[in-house]
Amino acid sequence: MATVLDEIIVGVRADLEERRREVPLQAMRERAAVAVRSSPARDAHAALAGGRLDDHGIRIISEVKRSSPSKGALADIASPAELARRYEAGGASAVSVLTERHRFGGSLQDLDAVRAAVDIPVLRKDFTVDEYMIHEARAHGADLILLIVAALDDSQLAEYLALTHELGMNALVEAHTVEEIERAVAVGSRIVGVNVRNLKTLDVDPRNYAALAPNLPAGVVRVAESGVQGPEQVADYARDGADAVLVGEALVRHGDPSQAIRDFRAASLTVRG
Ligand SMILES: O=P(O)(O)OC[C@@H](O)[C@@H](O)c1c[nH]c2ccccc12
């Protein structure tokens, strides 16, 4: 049976073929190479492992998310740049920008605008299913890309991670099960996310983080993804050892996202002083 993930990937591949007709792989490789020289990637690993924050608060990856497959339209984001600046002002360690169009309403234009607006690392959040998308991410300024273990076989995972590192970027490698965590770790992932949203049913269960986190080895940056509605959930993830948390909906719907981020970080400090 086709899952939501499978359906999304069909659309991602169709869009990719269109862009590849405009700018073929070799030309995109050259654009990425130019970006590597003129505007090298920011160190997302360092930022998520502690970075400029001198307390022990959880690091926040704040997402620019217009819509989602489970909820439809989430927020009317007139200026992704302005939203990203608010995230940065509140103390976010990185900004995630959805670039998938059909289900998330994102675009590479959003990525360009956000990268130019902030000094913190920027994640291109998309369904990476081809080498092309990694060169393209770097050409558009991405510092970090998403690799979803469930969408890739082991050789793709290893190859895409190596290319990401070659271009000076980091990868957030997303897992949903113990087996996927093991596959992520086996290829040498340095930043591993546990997404508590089931990609087949889209159900969110934050308890999945506590259940799966013991399988993350020391030395990888641990990211809890999805399901944050308020500070309590952030405190729970922090208690369960998350170094960073990825938050979308709760921030795009909040009237004061800078303050929301401050509140999330403060909540995490109450559980680890
Ligand atoms: O809006 P939320 O529940 O805070 O979730 C954010 C983020 O984890 C979610 O957008 C996400 C996690 N992994 C993904 C992969 C693709 C698209 C989106 C995602």
TrEMBL record:
Domain of life: Bacteria
Official protein name in the record: Indole-3-glycerol phosphate synthase
Spans through the membrane: none
PANTHER family according to UniProt: INDOLE-3-GLYCEROL-PHOSPHATE SYNTHASE, TRYPTOPHAN BIOSYNTHESIS PROTEIN
Keyword terms, alphabetized: Amino-acid biosynthesis, Aromatic amino acid biosynthesis, Decarboxylase, Lyase, Tryptophan biosynthesis
Record keyword Amino-acid biosynthesis present: yes
Keyword Lyase: yes
Pathway annotation: Amino-acid biosynthesis; L-tryptophan biosynthesis; L-tryptophan from chorismate: step 4/5
Native source species: Citricoccus nitrophenolicus
HAMAP family linked to this entry: IGPS_B
Documented EC number(s): 4.1.1.48
Pfam families in the record: IGPS (PF00218)
Family: Belongs to the TrpC family.
